[in-house]
């Protein structure tokens, strides 16, 4: 049977197994060399690449006490590495044989494994209850005391062995490596008694205070429980002192025979490590000296800052305690610094912890942290993130780049993490977190492509830019909220001063809708205060968003930092004062100063382990001038330059290459750019990592440890060298990222322009600009379009096309003046009539948007003249002109004529369209009608329908909207289908067919939800609310209006927010709640005043006037009506101005100023007749009839009433049509005085009967004025009949209703009639 093979090695048999992998004995198939081969379990490719990089770094370490790695690789997705097979035994086996007792087998623990009584949340609490050790008590089980009897007399072997073990440990730590799983099983002892450290499966790197932290929060405790330091158990950052703790545990075990803490399960042992105190070794072995007890205690101190931090210090102490001469071999270790605690940020951290408490209450929030470069923003957030991770919060990190800002960049890494989670957990989790949203996210983050189940969803529907952005924002919000169930989520986002437009848009969206306070999600962003742009400032200053401004550190904090990095407690006094003064409280300066001092050999440790910097740092006497004379730069720039100068030529090459590429660079790209072979590059990068020039980022990438290191590296490059490197970067990117090149076009453009190849730069910039445009990142698109245009030296067709494209993007983002400049430039220099036509059309659209009516009209006519040879473009222009004349100018007759021209034009181009409408079985494909022609025609029918609807011609409006719907359904235009359905619903509503209206609005709502057009959804909900309002269902109407209001507030559509508020006010008004109506109208007015919407201000003022008129406060009503009319006169909107005249006319009628009332009514009617608004003309006749009654001209009143009634019957509706029966009764009552006695009785009987019918109708009529006026008219009719008691009863009923609902005007009118009756 053939033995299994891994790489070039035949597996012989297993040597051991642990939580992270298996160790085999193996033989090389060619050389016969016997090795120990370890396979390592990994979770994903990112972890795999990281492990391989670390293994290669280990392979370069040469020390007799560290096992040599001879080969590494990957097989079946598992990384492996081969080590020298050490002839000997493990330390556990060695002690068993040499000392005659067996060390206890340890309990291994790896975070996340399904071992018994795993610990972190509930189990740790249980351990606290069940552990037999108490805080502050010695851990000294009786069994341990009994076992220790046979161990006396063995110190002569223990002390030399451990002192020799310190040498490889010190060397490892000098290389920036911490083992993390130091235990007797991972220490081999050769036949001559030399200890050798093996099995680096859990190794990691540690560094001193990082120049610039990377925002990553990796949490997870790994190791073997019996030897894990408290900080390692708690998942905190670990450094060499975690290994020193493990060394103390091993020394304790060698002295005593068992680990310092033992228990029946891992939870008990963990509790003891965190809180227990082991009995001193001398309690078991009286011969153990007090100094050795003290050494063990100092190694096992809970606080790593109080722990012995250097293995060579331990070795020196053990040699001094040993009676034998001990010789330690091996190279001298390098000096290293420790990471300082996050000091001086207690107030800021307490603010952050408030959010942690909020998460536990299922609430979240938004926080920004600002400060100057190097002040410690990222470090603070990272520390908080690790606290959150320990509490079970899911922590996701993101960041923004200075060089090339990709769309949605701040959230790409969180989306990658979500994609990884979906791949790991499968279809059910993917459906929960993403569903149809995944297809939209895939436009920005390729990791979202091909996730489980995504193939079942269609591609996202095309939407207008603003609607597409809103869809993206709502999807992100929904996915993050799903992710936070059941685990709270923290989004930690770094360097937001460089963020992109879409990320900013999402921040603004979340701040506005305030979802974070209603879900366990906290979003924390950092930014450089000196580099913040206005857009981010606006978000930071938003009400409800908390901000922390990090200042510089004080003297005490700097001293603490220095002490932590040097591992000295207390810190060196005068030296700390000097650094505080020189740094001005900037922690980056302090770490760079210490690092430079070590690099150039001025800062070192003496044989006793004490630090010295020319003078002994324990000496606190030196004055400041002693430090000032040291040959170390005293500026941050000087310190960084000094470190860069010390680099070798081999090391300088990747630093220069990385500086050219940007903040972050892949190892593969460095390899391609530098020309170094694989091994050389890894050696150099490893050295740069250790010296904190670079730091690890994501898998396979490194980055500068601080932006200033990159800036200074870049500034030191000569012009030609920089040009050479940019060319190398561009060529290397094209090779390395050939399959994803579209994502790197912006970077390529920058490199090619710096390399002097403008043709390639232009191509890349243009491609990148269009990609950003298609992803709605308008700001970045404009930047890239501008970069292209700046390289153009002559006017070409492509140049002019790009000017137009940039103009389109500028227009879409509201930069109208800049867009007009681009269009004008293209118009001035092009001889392409099609381009000229399109530019003029776009100019006209902008001019109408900004209110330049005459300019818009002129531009449209110019475009129309130019478009004669481009018929489809001409039809499109006509459609826009119809919108301009109809909707904006209310010139409906002209709009209808323009629509007819557009219709006839398309029909002349494609006569077979007539066959389509004549034959239901045919289709547009069959008749070879292009999609663009169909879209233009659908737009024409839409505008036709709107014009006829506004004029009150509902049958024709329905016909055209149905045609528009048919075309949209034929070509699959989902958004068009939704719009047409909504319009058809509006027509049915106006005709009184509320059931059919509801069917079409529901269809529109369904489509809106399918394509996630939030704005259309909001508008449709408004329309459904109007249907329920018309049905008299107050509660449901309010419900739908509130839903629409919530959507408009979510998307920030303030104009439609006002519309929704107005609709709610209308419901309350119609149903008699005048106070609530006034409240919502006033909110409507406040919003329009805030956004400067003059039209909206006028409409809101008119609505408020209506309420005051109902109250009977004619002075205030007149004031608001006059304000409304003045605004409409100012903006020149004649039809709306006419509506204001109607309201003002009614007020003057009630005040008794009938001549003015009739004059205003006549002026309004003239305007409505001129623009062809039949419906409003009917309303004017209705109002005029009441004026005629008041002045006693019953013949004229009858004529006016008849005309109004005919119009309402023709158009099947009208705003005042409900008043027709009331006016008829009032007119009949008024005319009774002119009748002869013969006819009077007969007429009185008729009018009483009519009035009784009104009262019956009032039961089902939702309008409160109708409910009041019906018994009022009946009372007047009964009074005319002489039925005084019945008349009084009806009038009292009307009066009670008027008082109940606050209709003061009707109350006074009723009381006047009642007074006349009583007087009679």
UniProtKB/TrEMBL annotation:
<dbReference type="InterPro" id="IPR000719">
    <property type="entry name" value="Prot_kinase_dom"/>
</dbReference>
<dbReference type="Pfam" id="PF13424">
    <property type="entry name" value="TPR_12"/>
</dbReference>
<feature type="repeat" description="TPR">
    <location>
        <begin position="1058"/>
        <end position="1091"/>
    </location>
</feature>
<feature type="repeat" description="TPR">
    <location>
        <begin position="1018"/>
        <end position="1051"/>
    </location>
</feature>
<dbReference type="Pfam" id="PF13181">
    <property type="entry name" value="TPR_8"/>
</dbReference>
<protein>
    <submittedName>
        <fullName>Tetratricopeptide repeat protein</fullName>
    </submittedName>
</protein>
<dbReference type="Pfam" id="PF00069">
    <property type="entry name" value="Pkinase"/>
</dbReference>
<feature type="repeat" description="TPR">
    <location>
        <begin position="938"/>
        <end position="971"/>
    </location>
</feature>
<keyword id="KW-0067">ATP-binding</keyword>
<dbReference type="Pfam" id="PF13191">
    <property type="entry name" value="AAA_16"/>
</dbReference>
<keyword id="KW-0547">Nucleotide-binding</keyword>
<dbReference type="InterPro" id="IPR008271">
    <property type="entry name" value="Ser/Thr_kinase_AS"/>
</dbReference>
<feature type="repeat" description="TPR">
    <location>
        <begin position="1098"/>
        <end position="1131"/>
    </location>
</feature>
<dbReference type="InterPro" id="IPR017441">
    <property type="entry name" value="Protein_kinase_ATP_BS"/>
</dbReference>
<keyword id="KW-0802">TPR repeat</keyword>
<dbReference type="InterPro" id="IPR027417">
    <property type="entry name" value="P-loop_NTPase"/>
</dbReference>
<dbReference type="InterPro" id="IPR041664">
    <property type="entry name" value="AAA_16"/>
</dbReference>
<dbReference type="InterPro" id="IPR019734">
    <property type="entry name" value="TPR_rpt"/>
</dbReference>
<dbReference type="InterPro" id="IPR011990">
    <property type="entry name" value="TPR-like_helical_dom_sf"/>
</dbReference>
<dbReference type="InterPro" id="IPR011009">
    <property type="entry name" value="Kinase-like_dom_sf"/>
</dbReference>
<feature type="domain" description="Protein kinase">
    <location>
        <begin position="9"/>
        <end position="319"/>
    </location>
</feature>
<feature type="binding site">
    <location>
        <position position="38"/>
    </location>
    <ligand>
        <name>ATP</name>
    </ligand>
</feature>
